Amino acid sequence: MGSQFTDWQGRYYHIDQVLDKPGPRTDPAFLAGDGVKDFLRNQAKILVIGAGGLGCEILANLALTGFKDIHVIDMDTIDISNLNRQFLFRTKDVGKPKATVAAEFIMKRVPGVKVTPYFGKIQDKDDDYYLQFNLVICGLDSVEARRWMNATLVNLVDPENPESLKPLIDGGTEGFKGQARVILPTITSCYECSLDMLNKPTAFPICTIANTPRLPEHCIEWASVLEWPRVKGDKKLDTDDPEHIGWLYTAASARAKEFNIEGVTWSLTQGVVKNIIPAIASTNAIISGKSRTLETTESVDNTHPAAACCNEAFKIATSSAAYLNNYFMLIGTDGVYSYTFEHEKRDDCPVCGGESLELSISSEFTVEQLIELLVEKQDIQIKKPSLSTPTTQIYLQAPPQLEEATRPNLTKKVSELVPPEGEVTVTASTLPFNLSLRVTYT
Amino acid sequence: MVEAQDIPTATTSIVADGQPDSKTRRYDRQLRLWAATGQSALENAHILVISGSATSTSILKNLVLPGVGKFTILDHANVTPEDAGNNFFLEGSSSIGKSRAEEAVRLLGELNDGVVGIADTSNVEELLEKDTSYFTSFTIVIAHNLEPKLLETLATLLWSDDSFPPLVTVRSAGFLAEFFVQFHEHTVVESHSETAPSLRIDKAFPALLDYSLSLDFSAMDPTDHTHIPYVIILVRALEDWKKAHDGKAPQTYHEKKTFKAAVLDLKVKFDEENFDEAESQAYRCWTETGVPSEIATLFQDPRLSSLTPTSPPFFHLLSALQKFTLEHPYTLPLTSTLPDMKASTTSYIHLQKLYKARAEEEKERFKTLLAVPIDDSVVDSFVKNAHALKVLRGRKWGTLDADHSLLINALASSPKQTAIHLSLSALSALTVKQSGDISVEALTAEVRSLLPPSSELPEEFSDAVGEVARAPTADLPNTAALLGGLIAQEVIKVITKQYVPISSYCTIDLVDTWTGVI
Ligand SMILES: [Zn+2]
């Protein structure tokens, strides 16, 4: 890599202080000196998922701490509202892919670092791709993508091959709050194990939206959920398109006026339809990787999560200090409050637990009711599930022929199709794994 | 969602079709956190940062991005090869030998066209001797790893008058760090508390009571019955209960249970969710609305007994609030914000109007109690946030180290946090006395000299002091980034006077990944 040209004398003066000597709490296995520096600077290969608020911070911190082979995946392009915190982007970059612009910026600013961007989805890559890395850091704002990444890394683990275990560091942020966690797939609690910790997305009942709006939010939901498809037909609503937001704003305002409701604004309209949680630069810096997990949420970034994530990556890669076991949360609305704890692995975790999830339902429950229950369950978070047993297809969402063929089962009782203690396999296009349920009846 | 509703007042520049201008779009996410008032405070601020270290530029990055008005980096040093290796706001080896302040200001400036950056290559020590007014002209001053004698002089200077800017002191070594915000007094109106103010169901105002009594539940159209807001149901049920119970609300467990059952008995159909909601909110009937204890405590503030026309508006407002609570019904002014509840549009909007009208009346009453004229928008915000006001009183930097009893208490109550504080204090002291290796022994001896003779050092002390000896001059990029995030956040809270800033030492251990306060 020609590092002898870019590694000027004194470049690593700061970092080397913790690599040349152990501290009082450093693992005795830590090999201070040249060995660990060579691994960090010439061998370690690290993958960053996301080049948004947390991702920008993560990339800069990793580069400065001495990682020289960094890969980054992001499927988004730069929007003007990113510029108040995603500090690798400038006004001239609006519209360009985040991964590419971020990679170029880091390589220019921190000489000798190679950042390889991929402008696309994490799902585009196969197991061999992920196997090449020592570590993965996730700075994503999407629950779905994190679940996919988590499940992929858990499935990658081959007990015969210790190299197949890739530590996953996950960061998230929301306003003045942030978090960072370390996941050792199959060994510690995984992302799926803690799904019930996520905030439930705000959902307004359809009847309120359609018949009894009371808040400006109800009028905005009406415009986007009911009025848009009614007027625009199949045309997809693009929440990044100002014209679409403008249309919703006008429609919602008219409805609000009709019902004497105050408070519909452009900003609120955008906030509701994009499910925006406020974001500022400082929290990103802190966790450069915390986990807020509202689906379809526009990321909320504060910078501290990023720093915490990168610090864990550095400690794991160098053993210069023990890494986080396994969860760090920081709340800054009232003073500075943080909480470090071990999140426990769930035996019935559908990704890493191995045991089926027990579900007790009434013997009168219909298949349709079971589906509703699954969609509601906070620790599962699934949309449009398909159900089957080893012998029967209970209900399949797709393809259309099979949906039609299994639709009559929706009104049947589950107990007619599944014996007590019977296994039901749940699949969904958004889930990168199958969920196994053991059904009992009351 | 409540936050989001505050934005319209903030975003003044909206183009014809309602679409916000490019500045509002750029700051969209943060405006949802602190609105236009906070943004304007930020844009009027001028921040001084002493040193262009990696930690200093990390803090500044998080203030330049959201659009602080001006910042000055005061640093007479030139970029060393060591600086060029750990600071993202230097351009690698090409910055070596150039002014550190100028390089950092240039690269930080690229983050936001709307921010003015000033590089000042004067020597801090000389400025502190010759021109103290330099330091007092800023909104807030931040100093990273400033040598102890200069830090003490600066802290004493900025503490010497109430009107001088707050000082943020930051010290770090390797994986350990601490920061402290020195300020005299900090008042917060918009604390963004998650506690909602009382709906005063137990002390229903006349219009609310009259309305709930005017409805004949049993004669209502079934659809309307399903849409009576729970507030109305409870006011009515409570009034009926009081008539039968000597004017008293339910008190015993049994009475409360009976009351709830009576509420559910009002249902005409089993699936009337508004009555279920009323039952679950029934506690509001026996939770007496008074003055919250945190607010009552503020009425004891010495500032109120020595109020003069030139006292800060906050205390005039607080004084008026106290007078307000001494009148019937002995509560804070009514909130005009109604939570969502099961109701038809018309019944909800009607109820909302009742609350708004009453809140407006009470606000007018509140205004008559003010001894000095205060801008309406300030009064509005104060009344709206009256249930979550904060008054913080800070300490001078160094107070902890100067007082043996405080140190002993801190060691006993927060041993690992105090261990970090003392180790960093010892490091600052030693760095000036000696050059070369910093040993655990020398640091420990220095710590002992800060403590009363024969004090016990906690178990955790060796962890902290060992880490400091390991990396005494290391400004690690990750530690710098974490400090950058945390400190910028506190600075924003201080400048915007929103949310609640920290008023103690914050210590950070990135070996075991925790933060703590002393
Ligand atoms: Zn799991």
Key words describing this protein structure:
heterodimer; A: 442 residues; Rossmann fold; Arc Repressor Mutant, subunit A; Structural Genomics Hypothetical 15.5 Kd Protein In mrcA-pckA Intergenic Region, Chain A; eight-stranded mixed beta sheet; B: 518 residues; alpha/beta; two-stranded antiparallel sheet; elongated; disordered N terminus; binds zinc ion; Ubiquitin-activating_enz (chain B); ThiF/MoeB/HesA (chain B)
Q: How does this structure look, described?
A:
The complex is a heterodimer of chains A (442) and B (518). Chain A is 35% helix and 15% strand. Chain A is of the alpha/beta class and 442 residues long. Chain A folds into three domains: 3-197 and 301-341, 3-Layer(aba) Sandwich (Rossmann fold); 203-293, Arc Repressor Mutant, subunit A; 357-441, Structural Genomics Hypothetical 15.5 Kd Protein In mrcA-pckA Intergenic Region, Chain A, CATH 3.10.290. In chain A, the strands form two sheets. In chain A, strands 3-2-1-4-5-6-7-8 form an eight-stranded mixed β-sheet, with helices on both faces. In chain A, strands 9-13-12-10-11 form a five-stranded mixed β-sheet, with helices on both faces. The N and C termini of chain A lie far apart (66 Å). Among the domains of chain B are: 206-286, no CATH class; 293-393, no CATH class. With 518 residues, chain B is an alpha/beta fold. The interface between A and B is large, with 97 and 96 residues. Zinc ion binds at residues 190, 192-193, 346, 349, 351-353 of chain A.
What level of helicity do the residues of chain A show?
A: 25-40%
Oligomerization category of the chains in this entry = heterodimer
- Give the overall shape of chain B: elongated
The overall average pLDDT of chain B, rounded, is 93
Which range best describes the helical content of chain B: under 10%, 10-25%, 25-40%, 40-55%, 55-70% or over 70%?
40-55%
Rg calc of chain A:
24 Å
Q: What structural class do the secondary elements of chain B suggest?
A: alpha/beta
CATH topology of the largest domain in chain A: Rossmann fold
Uncertain ranges of chain A: 279-301
What order do the strands of the largest sheet of chain A run in, or round the barrel if closed? Answer: 3-2-1-4-5-6-7-8
Shape of chain A: globular
CATH C-level category of the largest domain in chain A: Alpha Beta
Mean pLDDT of chain A: 88
Catalytic activity (chain A): ATP + [NEDD8 protein] + [E1 NEDD8-activating enzyme]-L-cysteine = AMP + diphosphate + [E1 NEDD8-activating enzyme]-S-[NEDD8 protein]-yl-L-cysteine
Function (chain A): Catalytic subunit of the dimeric E1 enzyme, which activates NEDD8.
Enzyme class (chain A): ligase
Family (chain A): Belongs to the ubiquitin-activating E1 family. UBA3 subfamily.
